[in-house]
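Let's practice the habit of predicting before peeking. Look at the sequence and jot down your guess about where helices and strands might fall. Then scroll down.
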Amino acid sequence: MLGDFTPMTTEITGGRILEVRCHDSYINYKIDSDFKAGVDLEPIRADPFTKLIKADGRFPPLKNESFDLVLALDVIEHVQEDHKLVSALVDLLVPGGKLILTTPSHRIQMFPSFLTKWISNSQGHEVRKGYSQEELAKLFDRRVDIRISQWNAPFYRLLYLPLAAINRVFPGLVKYFIRPIAQWDFNHQDGPNDFLTLEGCKSVLDGSWKVSQNVKP
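Done guessing? Here is the structure:
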């Protein structure tokens, strides 16, 4: 469901797009693009217009510099060797290509707060709960200009458990609740108990890599 709460995914059009840990390619399905591909350990064929690749995101069998946009939504916190995943994502981007990556903050609190750990474990966050902005920025080398912003998602965090229950029983119904909740959260992005959204741009300037990593305090 996280992709529905990520405003940038509704603004993506054109180019060659790769979604890492695509699952059923739900995000790709909503994007109008020249070419769409998805990488997952167990991909599910749902979008006939997405080329599915069964592979580990750290070692994708794809040519470097072949995508204009790479999406990694709610993925990196599950990966032990996160630096290898980041390196692979950057390698796949063409110069000037864009990366969108989302992950929980290390200080995220769901509702009720005492169930945060249980919810995190149920989402498969055995490797790590999340990142601080500084920890996330350190994973990126001199090839990428990055901007990290907070996404507080108060209504998503408040309604996560009932949404998850509805999705389990009536998976086709939950989408009718997600869009208005996403709009409410879009208007309330700042806050301490949040997710992080990283936007990265791989650039070449005068034959050398551009260096400018800006982390929003």
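How did you do? Confidence is low (pLDDT under 50) at residues 206-217.
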